[in-house]
From TrEMBL:
It comes from Trichogramma kaykai. GO terms for cellular component: chromatin; nucleus. GO terms for biological process: epigenetic regulation of gene expression. One of its GO terms (molecular function) is zinc ion binding. Pfam families: zf-C2H2, zf-C2H2_4. It comes from the Eukaryota. The lineage of its organism: Eukaryota, Metazoa, Ecdysozoa, Arthropoda, Hexapoda. Residues 30-58, 59-87, 88-116, 117-145, 146-174, 175-198, 203-231, 232-260, 261-289, 290-318, 319-347, 348-376, 377-405, 406-434, 435-463, 464-492, 493-521, 522-550, 551-577 form the C2H2-type domain. It is found in: Nucleus. This is C2H2-type domain-containing protein. Keywords: Metal-binding, Nucleus, Repeat, Zinc, Zinc-finger. PROSITE patterns: ZINC_FINGER_C2H2_1, ZINC_FINGER_C2H2_2.
Amino acid sequence: MDKSDNKIEEVVIPGNTSEHVIVVSEDKKYICDICHEAFTLESSVITHKDTIHNERKDYECEKCEKKFEFRSQLSRHQISAHKTRNDFACDRCEKKFVKKSSLFMHQKLLHKDRKDFTCDKCERKFENKSTLLKHKKIFHEVFKNYLCEICAKKFDTKQNLLKHIKGVHNGRKDFACDECEKTFGEKRNLLLHQNTVHGCTDYVCDICEKKFGRKLALFKHQKKIHEGVKNHVCNKCEEKFRKKSQLLFHLKAVHNDFKNYSCDNCGKKFGHKRTLLAHQKIFHEGQRDYACDQCEKKFAYKNSLFFHKNKIHEGREDFACDKCEKKFGLKWGLLLHQKTAHEGRRDFACEKCDKKYGQKSDLIQHQKIIHEGRKDYACDKCEKKFGVRSNLIVHQRAIHENCRDYICDNCGKKFTRKSGLLFHQKTVHEGHKDYVCDKCEKKFGDKHHLTRHIKLVHEGRKDFSCDRCEKKFGMKSNLLTHKKAVHEGRKDFACDKCEKKFGERSSLNQHQRTIHEGRKDYTCDKCEKKFGKKSNLLVHQRIVHEGCKNFACNECEKKFGVRSNFYKHQKLVHKIR
């Protein structure tokens, strides 16, 4: 059809003050009521409005169902009509949201896998600010002992508390409630007031069930009314708790309540199946996925690797005891130390021997090893068995890998454990020996060595017999060494300088130190004579300076200071074998 053939007609458009007349062609009878443009099809008018005039109202208020064309209009409506603000701000791009769920969805879609938040204490990275704050609270929390008596806020130093009181509580109250005209010094207190007085009561005291509108009010109420009151008593160990939730957590964590999943290998119980599976993977399958890039030591947990680096390679111990100045790498280590060392608490008693422990894990370990005789951890290189997995690891590192990372600054002696180094320094170089034998006045650094000395020297006990030659030993380790060297002919440790072989690595180390290095690290404080072995020094002091000769021949009454000389005398003089 030719355009000149189109019919023309007048269309009346109603207006506010007068009627408007426009001229349109017959085939364009659909008119936009906003700009009066004419269209051939009705769908064209709808598309025109959507694109040009944006008549679609996709943003609906969830409180009154009113619809808006733009998000900004909805936000203004919510603030003015419902006093709702975009209180949920993204800590990465500062975009704000009315609903917390919208914020989470935004972060999940736009900021996935980004770790922009770095801990200023350990440089660990996190995806969001809340996770970073939680991490800092758990691992780097500074104890806040200074409490503001006005608002109950806590501070780490007295200076910060005074600064807070001066800045916040000095009489200025610039924030007024628009419902009751009450004024406040801080905006957050105004918001809390509005929520408490004019809003909800979500915080319930679990002791007396009184309700509060804000968490701070609940905290102040419990501190004032219920502080020191512990009405919730554990029916298993009689420990008392202020809150029922604390009692339930104690029952679950300490007394194995609600632990329905048992390990088939060791019988340990767990509250969740995933925890059981993780336990089996780590402890019974030996899976260690996290390796230290400095010493190649492997760990089952990422956190364990992190703490290992902090303590071993960086020497960080951020948690100090305020009573004895002892330092710890972990907060729970400090809390356990304070509980056992300074409060003297040993809450877990063995029902078979009445021995007490500060941790339930120590009690279980004691019962398993001492009363059940279980040694579940066997070395795959020498078949030696251990009751504790950590002792197996120490054994393998010390004996089969020769890993001795702790070196004495005074004499160069190496140790597998830090505790061994500290004990060595305390007893050998500092001379601290607080345990004295009441029979010969010999001194020892700990009770264990004193007990062993009395059993072997003064009681002459030899509880370990060889099943092949009936020879007896006072220590099990000596029996095992005897079996390996005498009956199996094994001397697995060869000197690389003279090819002499030894049954134990300690003997090899001592040989190299005294023979090839010529070291004599043990000096007599009375005559300054030097010895390569500590045992030789002790024998020298006992015989030469103390005149002790404890080994008397019952044939001729001759006395000896050394057991080996006594045996040699009986063998050569009296033909006693």
